[in-house]
Amino acid sequence: MDINNRFFFRKIQINYALLDFYTIFAITPLYYNMKREIIQYFKEWKSRKDRNPLIVRGARQVGKTYVIEEFAKSEFKNCLKINLEEKPELRKIFFDNDVNRILTELSIIMNENVIYGETLFFIDEIQTSPEAILSLRYFKEKLPELHVICAGSLLDHTLNEMKLPMPVGRVEFLYMYPLNFKEFLLAINQEKLVTYIQEFDFTKPYSEVIHAQIAQHLRFYFFIGGMPAVVKNFAKNTKLPDIQRIQNNILTSIQYDFAKYGTRRQQEYLQTVIRYCGRYPGRKIKYSNIDREIRSTYLKEAIEKLVLSRVIHAVKHSNATKVPVAELVKEDVFKTFFLDIGFVNQLNQIELTGLDDLVTANEGMLAEQFVAQELLCIQPAWSNPELYYWSREEKNSNAEIDFIFQHNNKIYPVEVKAGKTGTLKSMQLYLYEKKLDTGVRFNMDIPSRGAFNTKVNAPAKNAEISWNLMSLPLYMVSELKRLIAL
User: Fold this and answer.
1) What is the DSSP string of 271-282?
2) Which end of the chain is less enclosed by CB atoms within 10 A, N or C?
3) What is the distance between the alpha carbons of residues 189 and 435, in angstroms, rounded to a whole number?
4) What pLDDT score does 361 carry?
5) How far from the centroid of its chain's Cα atoms is residue 395's Cα?
6) Helix 191-199 and helix 208-224, axial crossing angle in degrees, nearest 10
7) What does the pLDDT read at residue 15?
């Protein structure tokens, strides 16, 4: 990735410490509306006759509890909710597999009626009770008419370490992430911009004015991020100084979670890796760059725990020429991205005052972090997506493709540029070597596509390729699958 491109955001010579977002853009904050796309999957799950108890997985504070409660309000007569972290005494109720007794006791304790088909049974923080997880099998087998949803932070750790048998085939999963950019726009009352993005299809001229407006919103998303508590504060109060405080509080709570794991020294390793991966998203992991004084095995273990916690996402190197991309993966060659782009700036100690001065050397890094987050979100919520990239490190012939995207059994190299310009030599070389014909570029120019004939710097003399390029603005990652098919 060329991080020296000029940043796509036009500098606005305004003191952001004195003016809020809505003053700058002349927008009235009418309401705060947390519309999450995952709700559609909840509705589909509710209507299926063959549904299993549903477990929602995701990092802490990405909005799991909020979304499930909103789903319960809109789709059910009532909700029997228990939180096994707030009320640990309730864990004792799951001592056996008598789900009728479990449900009856909880109904009495919580003073809530249970009507099959009209009541949602919601177990929050289920990771604290392996016995509760095991009981899901029997809710499926003995009370299939009951709608059961569970959620938990650090749930992957529990599932990975469970000594009790996992109810395989009797549960299903959905995966949640911070708000993506379209959800952010909806939260700040920009439905028409979302519609404009969703309706683009290359057949009509693209508005430069609307493009500039979306880019301004994207600028704020880069520094605010998609954590629900942060977006909620921004949408309601619109005061930038509060954002850092909330981001810091969430980061602190995430790091406190790791007090539950290992020795004090192991917790220090986790802190070290969090700081490194948060400050340098998209950088290939070399353990010596994280800390030369810590053994690589300890750092590797810390990274694995953070991946399980969904605080960081590992992007593995793939040398595949055909699907599946996962076939030729180098497990020990990978780069990482952080949970949320807003945290990247927080960990880099960038203050959210005078955003016009935030055009820094981090521009390309932030653009790549953004695309990584969006690529995770465009996969179905029931899948556990993985990201891949490609690189070659040879003397006088280094090349890297930021992401390798698999869709409809085809492979597409994806390049990310922070500005409007930048060469695509790595993409051309990759297409030539893998015998592919289409690449995707995300930058901040208006969308376009075209066909090209290009000479390639390859060992073969007079190497040339005929290839297609689809170039999209960064904020259209969400439309990638749809636009590839056009």
Assistant:
1) HHHHHHHHHSTT
2) C
3) 45
4) 58
5) 35
6) 120
7) 34
Q: Other CB atoms closer than 10 Å to residue 131's CB: what's the count?
A: 14
Q: Is the pLDDT of residue 401 over 60?
A: yes
pLDDT in tens, 29-73: 434 568 999 999 999 999 999 999 999 999 999 999 999 999 999
Can you list the pairs that 98-104 forms with residues at least 24 positions away whose Cβ atoms lie under 8 Å? 99/135, 99/138, 99/139, 99/142, 99/143, 100/142, 100/143, 102/135, 103/143, 103/146
Report the topology of domain 39-175.
Rossmann fold (3.40.50)
Indicate the burial class of 380 (C-beta count within 10 angstroms; 0-12, 13-18, 19 or more).
Answer: exposed
Cβ-based neighbour number of residue 295 at 10 Å: 11
The angle formed by the CA atoms of residues 172, 70 and 246, to the nearest 5 degrees, is 100
Choose among 21, 423, 440, 57: nearest CA to 239: 21
Domain spans of the chain? 39-175, 240-356+384-484
> Which tens digit of pLDDT belongs to each residue from 265-312?
888 999 999 999 999 999 999 999 999 999 999 999 999 999 999 999
DSSP H helical segments within 225-286, as ranges?
A: 228-237, 240-257, 264-279
The values of phi and psi at residue 314, to 5°, are -90, 130
pTM of the model: 0.90
Let me know how long the chain is: 486
> What φ, ψ does residue 291 adopt, rounded to 5°?
-165, 115
How many Å apart are CA 313 and CA 305, to the nearest integer?
Answer: 11
